[in-house]
Design brief:
heterodimer; A: 166 residues; mainly alpha; 0% strand; globular; B: 187 residues; 66% helix
């Protein structure tokens, strides 16, 4: 009974986030993570080549001075949407043969308040979390401070979570 | 061909490639595309401090931390092998505005006038990097995702909360960039 309760809390904690609660039931060896490293590398390359990591491009975006970022986000959504549609329609499985499962996001006030707060930060830093990692890789070592600050922000959120409007 | 690789990529090439990360992660292992959650996993792995939000099996999300390490490496690889050697081309309006704040160096897509350690010790730098970073970390967790998790993955999966989050990302950004940043950048 106790074990079940613990499992449920764990599921609840993880489902509150973009964290998959339907994880693979297979036990993978560590080298199975290499594919995520490679995908991350490719992703990082695209980010830098497309200048998504540029503070200038983000300023242009929020001042509506360029279509570039909207084009990227928009076409990414279009491709994402189409691919999810195809996955669902043809019941496509993972490379390990497991079903691909989606979970619904529950609406909370966090999307409003947290979203706004993140937007403020995004314009200040000119980077959302992804670009922060790429920028450090590119040699902008001062961004390490930004990243540490972001981790601190995450921690403080976790600390005050139940006291915040939800 | 080599030319194309060295030049900046247009949105219609980059966007779809970014979008393909969604099915790639799903097919590789039923993973939901999201980057800001890595910040949560860092906290859970290093300093959970008995806070319920960080008490979960973060080891199951190691893939995510490895993914962002990949992003870092991708940045390094691009800078060293595929870099665009020309200055970044930025809109005329923006360059005029930024000149008022002493930002004139476009030799790198990452503003050399801002991204320096000495800048970090000015009030402006502190606000941009430390306060900005903090708001990013706090806000993304409060919202439950960032551009990748909500705007791209969430909207691709037709999640209304993600659309709402994205709208408020934009509202926050527009207000900051147009009404508050001019004062901060003038510091």
């Amino acid at each position: 009974m106790d074990k079940n309760k613990l499992k449920n809390t764990e599921k609840e904690v993880r489902s509150l986030d973009a964290v998959c609660i339907n994880e693979s039931s297979l036990e993978h060896k560590w080298y199975h993570n290499i594919k995520y490293l490679i995908l991350g590398i490719l992703f990082g390359i695209v980010f830098v080549k497309a200048e998504v990591v540029s503070w200038f491009r983000i300023q242009e975006m929020f001042r509506f001075q360029s279509f570039h970022m909207y084009g990227i986000i928009g076409s990414a959504i279009a491709v994402g949407m189409l691919s999810i549609f195809i996955i669902k329609k043809f019941n496509i499985k993972t490379i390990y043969g497991e079903p691909i499962v989606f979970s619904s996001k529950k609406f909370t006030k966090g999307q409003v308040y947290g979203g706004f707060i993140f937007g403020l930060g995004w314009a200040l830093t000119g980077a959302c979390p992804g670009p922060l990692f790429a920028q450090i890789g590119m040699g902008a070592t001062v961004v390490i401070i930004t990243l540490l600050s972001a981790v601190a922000g995450t921690w403080v959120y976790g600390y005050f979570r139940d006291k915040l409007p939800n | 061909m080599l030319d194309f690789i060295l030049q900046p990529w247009p949105w219609y090439v980059a966007g779809p490639l970014v979008g393909l990360t969604v099915p790639a992660l799903l097919i590789l292992g039923n993973k939901s595309f999201g980057i800001s959650s890595s910040l949560r996993h860092f906290c859970a792995s290093c300093m959970p401090a008995n806070i319920p939000f960080f008490k979960y099996d973060w080891k199951k999300e190691i893939w995510n931390m490895i993914f962002v390490l990949g992003i870092l490496l991708g940045g390094w690889i691009t800078m060293n092998f595929f870099s665009n050697l020309n200055p970044i081309e930025v809109s005329q309006e923006l360059t005029e505005e930024l000149a008022n704040y002493g930002i004139n160096d476009y030799s790198s897509m990452i503003p050399k006038d801002l991204y320096t350690w000495s800048e970090l010790f000015t009030l402006r730098g502190l606000l941009l990097f430390v306060v900005g970073g903090f708001l990013v970390g706090f806000g993304t967790r409060y919202a439950g995702g960032c551009t990748s998790g909500h705007a791209i993955m969430g909207i691709s999966n037709l999640q209304l909360p993600s659309l709402v989050a994205t709208i408020f990302f934009m509202i926050g950004g527009v207000i900051m960039a147009n009404f508050i940043l001019p004062y901060i950048l003038s510091l």
